[in-house]
Amino acid sequence: MTYETLLYAVDESVATITLNRPERMNALTKVLEGELRTAIERASRDAGVRAIVLTGAGRAFCAGMDMEELEVLPPEDIQAEQWMRPYDMNRRADYQTRYSYFPAASKPIICAINGAAAGLGLVMALYSDFRLASEHAVFATAFAKRGLIAEHGIAWMLPRVVGHAHATDLLLTSRKIDAAEALAMGLVHRVVPPEALPAAALTLARSLSHDVSPRSVRIMKRQLWESPFQTLGDAVGLANMEMVLSLRSEDFKEGVAHFVDKRAPRFTGA
Question: What is the pTM of this model?
Answer without folding.
Answer: 0.90
